[in-house]
Specification:
- This protein has helices at about 5-15, 20-55, 75-85, 120-125, 150, 225-235, 250-260, 275-285, 295-335, 340-345, 350-395, 415-440, 440-445, and strands at about 60-65, 90-95, 100-105, 110-115, 115-120, 130-135, 140-145, 155, 185-190, 195-210, 220-225, 265-270, 290-295.
- It has about 450 residues and is of the alpha+beta class.
- Strands 1, 2, 3, 4, 5, 6, 7, 8, 9, 10, 11, 12 and 13 form a 13-stranded mixed sheet that branches.
- About 30% of the residues are buried.
Length: about 450
């Protein structure tokens, strides 16, 4: 008996008991839908959280925060040279803040903020972008942060700053003009004994940084060259322009004045491909550097969610196992009802394995139908949840839910896992009735005395 004939025979018998088969398929579909929807919550939360973490962040970046077991654990130029010599390193950026709050002036407008030393060639390799203007070509040229203009206010620096309660500049005092090409006066200070002295460095604004991708990010800094920092250090007499206050202990003062190495506060290594991030990270960690990359964080998050998703799938599988009781009952009744047919097949010489296969095909068919319909229902539920739940939560708590946040997500692998589990469970459910069918006595079957 060919497989095609066996399948045709199964369908004919199933049509004779449509109601019972329908209820059995419905129970299986409900179990599969429950499994998929339950597990989809884990997949949805993982997808949303991972996207939030990785959004607008370079997956190839490795941040280096210092060295272990060293008296001066900062990153120096020697360390950067070592990083640049590693395989698969595309760029190494280094930034260092001037160790005092600078006073910036553009004509009658002024602001207080941070001056950051950057190496523009390496920044460009790493993907640093401008929203306007160009990169510096001379030592006295600078790039300003995207929000620098918002921090400029028309005031004399002595009276109360014209700021709103949220710290923003009042509208009538804001800078309205263009900044590209303007001269910016960078003021720094230092103490000689009890006397405070100040000096102004004139730099030219040639570029404006790209707007930060996050709404809450704020970039009012100015980005200067190593040459400008060297001039500031020459005035202050300290590394990075640190201010030595009159009440600073003598030991700390001597230590600061004797320090000659420059330590960079923000160092990032950029790999040429995300696949090489882990290798580079492990290499520098072996050298006792403190390093962090998004890939490290992703591994931890994915491990946690793997456990969560496995648990949810296990719980969902219980629902399918419960539904399999109905399949077992249906197949047992099918063996009883089809005893004459089984007897005829045995009488004409049908192999017991063929009879067994027919009942296993039927139980598998019921499981497959249930899995398919359950998957369709699960997708519909997921669409409804992702559309309706944010509205309910927003109204209930008064906080808007991000539009791209997914409470439920069904990847292709999830229905495949569900179908696989369902088929295994339903085949096992039909195995005992199928074995019973092979043991039916021909004479008793013909007399319907099974």
């Amino acid at each position: 008996m060919r497989f095609k004939d066996q399948f045709k025979f199964v369908r004919q018998n199933m049509k004779k008991n449509k109601t019972r088969i329908f209820m059995t398929v419905l129970a299986t579909a409900m179990g599969c839908a429950f499994l998929i929807v339950l597990a989809s919550v884990g997949f949805g939360l993982q997808k949303s959280i991972v996207e939030e973490i990785t959004q607008d962040r370079l997956m190839t970046e490795i941040q280096v925060h210092g060295k272990e077991n060293e008296e001066n654990a900062g990153i120096t130029m020697d360390d950067i040279t070592y990083f640049e010599g590693l395989d698969h390193v595309k760029a190494v950026t280094r930034r260092q803040m001037v160790d005092q709050q600078g006073e910036f002036r553009v004509g009658e407008f002024r602001a207080e903020g941070n001056a950051v030393v950057v190496d523009f060639p390496s920044e460009t390799k790493a993907g640093f972008e401008l929203s306007e203007g160009r990169l510096p070509e001379a030592d006295n040229e600078v790039v300003i942060g995207h929000d620098f203009a918002e921090s400029l206010a028309k005031w004399n620096g002595k009276e109360t700053a014209p700021l709103n309660e949220d710290g923003t500049v009042k509208e009538e005092f804001k800078y309205k003009g263009k900044l590209i090409g303007e001269t910016l006066n960078l003021g720094v200070k230092q103490y000689e004994g009890e006397e405070e002295k100040s000096k102004t460095f004139d730099v030219k604004i040639v570029g404006i940084g790209k707007k930060p991708t996050k709404d809450w990010e704020w970039d009012p800094n100015i980005y200067i060259s190593e040459k400008v920092l060297s001039e500031i250090e020459a005035f202050t007499g300290t590394p990075n322009g640190t201010v030595i206050t009159p009440n600073l202990p003598a030991e700390e003062r001597d230590l600061m004045e004797q320090r000659k190495d420059r330590f960079y506060s923000q160092v990032s290594i950029y790999a040429d491909d995300v696949e090489n991030v882990k290798t580079i990270s492990e290499t520098i960690k072996d050298k006792k550097y403190f390093a962090y990359s998004v890939v490290d964080e992703m591994e931890q998050i994915n491990t946690v969610f793997l456990i969560v998703k496995s648990g949810l799938i296990f719980i969902g599988t219980i629902a399918i196992i419960i539904a399999s009781i109905g399949i077992y009952n249906t197949m047992t009744m099918a063996v009883t009802e089809r005893a004459p047919d089984i007897g005829i097949m045995k009488a004409i010489g049908a192999n017991p394995s063929t009879i067994k296969r027919i009942f296993l095909i039927e139980s598998s068919y019921i499981g497959l139908l249930g899995a398919i319909f359950g998957t369709i229902v699960a997708y519909l539920i997921t669409l409804g949840v992702n559309w309706l739940l944010p509205i309910i939560l927003s109204n209930a708590f008064g906080e808007p839910i991000p539009g791209d946040f997914k409470f439920s997500h069904i990847p292709l692998s999830l229905p495949l896992i569900c179908i696989g589990i369902c088929l295994v469970v339903t085949i096992l459910s039909g195995l005992r009735p199928a074995r019973r069918a092979t043991k039916v006595d021909v004479l008793k079957a013909m007399r319907r005395e099974v």
